[in-house]
Amino acid sequence: MLRQSLSQKLLQKLSPQQIQLMKLLQIPTATLDQRVKEELEENPALDESEVGFEEENKDQEADPEDAAAAEENFELDDYLTEYMEDDPSSYRYKSDVFNSEEVKSLPIAVSKSFHDYLDQQVGMLELTCKKELIIADQVVGSIDSDGYLRRKPIEIIDDLLFSQNLDIQVEEVESILSKVQTFDPPGVGARDLRECLLIQMKQRIKKDKEALGGVTTHSKEIAHEILSQYFEEFSKKHYTKLQRQLEIEEEDLKEAIDEILKLNPKPASGYAPSNEVSTQYVVPDFFISNREGELELTLNSRNAPELKINDQYLNMLKNYKVRKRSKTVTKEDKKAVMFIKQKIDSAKWFIDAIRQRQQTLYKTMYAIMQFQYDFFLSGDEKRLRPMILKDIAEITDLDISTVSRVANSKFVQTEFGTKRLKSFFSESLQTQSGEEVSTLEVKNILSEIIEKESKRKPLSDEKLKDMLQEKGYNIARRTVAKYREQLNIPVARLRKEL
After folding, report:
1. What is the rounded radius of gyration, in angstroms, for the C-alpha atoms of the chain?
2. Torsion angles phi and psi, residue 289, rounded to 5
3. Which residues, 6 or more positions from 421, have their beta carbon under 8 angstroms from its beta carbon?
4. Euclidean distance between the first and final Cα of the chain, in Å?
5. In angstroms, rounded to a whole number, what is the distance separating the alpha carbons of residues 105 and 90?
6. In 237-293, at which residue ranges do the beta strands (DSSP E only) sit?
7. Tens digits of per-residue pLDDT, 300-349?
8. Mean pLDDT for the chain?
9. Which residues, 6 or more positions from 159, have their beta carbon under 8 angstroms from its beta carbon?
10. Which of 125, 186, 189, 300 could form a disulfide with 180 if both were Cys (CB 3.0 to 4.6 A apart)?
11. Are 383 and 265 within one domain?
């Protein structure tokens, strides 16, 4: 049996404008320019202003004749009157909280890509036919940005069969690959780390023999033997086992390992990426300066794009009002004005959203600066206070999600360097005296302890826990392991050196 009933529900729905505002708030200063350009392309009513804040006279009050016309189309006429009497200068916004000295242009790194360099060397190979050149181009094109050839010969054969209708054998690919592996930088074209290091070591031994009349250093010969026969033991740092199997002294093993450590595990690391993506520079969103003991906060000037409502659209509205008085308005004119209304509303919202973004950024960063005042004065990371998103949200009366969006992908430039906002947030850890300290302080002390440890006998996580507890920090071994991993510090066995 069907029944109808009424019920009340409390729902929260975000409008498209609110969603766009959240997205605007989340993007960093470095990408704001692109977002503004997209909006300028999509909305003809939005325009870039060549001047800053300008005072403009308000339009005259609504004409009495408009009252009668309002009965015909109240919504449109009411909008026209409201907009025309509004202060257009409010949509030529420029705030004084920005760093006006900030240069808006970014440096662009121009360099030859890694694959361009390899292609040049392909041209210098002594190849016997066009088929070999095609194979060489395919091999070089399959090398990744680290300098490794991750594709198997059979996959390269399939690629050439599909793209070039060329049927080749595995031996032909291997032959060309061996020539590519002689390219500069040493190690390029290797299929794994072991082969990469071996290629480099062989080239070093060859240079030694050429320079020393057929003789090479003993340490390089041992290093070559380690890489070719005992790579697993080397990678796991089983030095005692290596010394026993190679039947050498500890000093000889140390010299051989030093030779291996001179090799480059990423041959292409010194070249621009092959996809020609320019180097990403950190663009600070905020600037904090110390003015004789007083901190001063400014925003990057690129956060305040100079936008305004297009003057042509404003004039079209004025002309429409004049034509209404003379009663020469057509249906097409009304449709045009409704389109203009939609675009102007969108432009006004975008300008307001940029303004709101700037205010929210400043408000949040100011709260962070006040909360971590001692750090911004001294630069001493031990003076960082425990701070979570909720702390800043309560100070600013903003939602935690809003504070999170501001903190993500934003940077602040201080006299102690450029810092990521997210790095100022940390949980608290209680000392044995009951004092709360930032986990960042514990991580710094942990890093210092590991840096000073004996590399012949690295400290275990258990020992690190004991040393931290001796310094007054209540911490468990598993917490030490977590902090060590967050600092990208390997376990004790992998930190061992001879």
Report:
1. 33
2. -120, 150
3. 285, 365, 368, 406, 407, 408, 410, 411, 412
4. 84
5. 27
6. 286-291
7. 877 777 888 878 877 777 777 777 776 666 777 778 878 888 888 888 88
8. 79
9. 138, 142, 151
10. 189
11. no
The tokens for 87 are: 């202060």
Which pLDDT tens digit goes with each residue over 146-181? 889 988 989 999 888 888 888 888 899 899 899 999
Q: Determine phi and psi for 256, rounding to 5 degrees.
A: -65, -40
CATH of the domain at 493: 1.10.10.60
User: How does pLDDT run across 48-65, given as a tens digit for each residue?
Assistant: 765 433 333 334 333 434
Residue type, 106: L
What CA–CA distances, in Å, run from 307 to 49, 94, 318? 5, 9, 21
> How far apart are the C-alpha atoms of 201 and 256, rounded to whole Å?
11
The answer to whether residue 464 sits within a structural domain is yes
Q: Are both 326 and 240 inside the same structural domain?
A: no
Residue type, 135: I
DSSP reduced 3-state for 226? helix
Beta strands in 23-151 (DSSP E): 46-48, 98-99
Buried b (16+ CB within 10 A) or exposed e, 297-330: bbbbbbbbbbbbbbeebbebbeebbeebeeeebe
The token pair that represents 273 in the structure block? 């990426």
Q: What is d(CA 172, CA 175) in angstroms, rounded to the nearest whole number?
A: 5
SS3 211: helix
Position 24 in a domain: yes
- Strands (E) across 106-194 are located at none
Overall residue count recorded for the chain in this entry:
498
Residue 436 in this model has a pLDDT that exceeds 80 = no
Residues of the domain holding 322? 15-104+280-425
- Looking at the domain assignment, is residue 421 inside a domain? yes
- For 14, the token pair is 């975000």
Dihedral of the alpha carbons of 399, 401, 406, 410, in degrees to the nearest 10: 160
Is the pLDDT at 99 greater than 80? The verdict is no
pLDDT digits (tens, 9 = 90+) for 197-223: 999 999 988 888 887 776 667 888 888
DSSP annotation of 272: B
Listed residues 375, 391, 425: the one ending a domain: 425
Q: Which two tokens stand for residue 111?
A: 């360099």
The reported pTM is 0.56
Domain boundary among 371, 401, 425: 425
CB 188 within 8 A of CB 267: yes
How many other β-carbons are positioned within 10 Å of the β-carbon of residue 88?
17
The total of other beta-carbon atoms located within 10 Å of residue 428's CB is 13
